[in-house]
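Lab notebook page, bench 4
Experiment: in silico fold of construct C2
Operator: M.H.
Input chain length: 166 residues
Purpose: comparison with the prior construct
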Amino acid sequence: MKRILISTLFVVVTSICGFGQAAVTHTVTINIQNKVDIRVKPSTTLNTNFSLETVAEQEEGKEILQAGIFQVQATNNWLVQAKSTSPQFSYAGSEPSVVMSTSLLKIKNSNATDFLSLSDEGVVLVNGYSGDYESNEFGIDYKFEPNSLYPPGVYSLDIALTVSNP
């Protein structure tokens, strides 16, 4: 009888203690932001200066291959758009009112076959997948194709390469 009473008392005590327990749960949130970045490959230089020294070069045009090597780091798929920051080249020379359209300068991904005309609206140059800088590397080529002779001087144009998610 004593054993039954002790066993019953043990069950009652453990039941009461069991009901006295409490637990709390909480949620841990990790918010990974979309990251996309573009840079000129370190330890490389941009080769973006055309020197047209003959009439033939100005009539036929000239190319600069591997004018620059760029790298993209992204957490998602990405694309790079190239555009001129104005509709015309700026001109520094002795002639008044010289207008040279940006469409005379062509650009392409070095792995592509066709050049694209630059504009201030932009063209898609290359696209890729998520990855680090070393796995997302591309080169660009330029081609200048004048449609007539232009007076001597220095013509310049700023090109913006913008990386974004499609």
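Observations: Helices lie at 2-19, 55-60. The longest strand covers residues 62-74.
Next step: discuss at group meeting.
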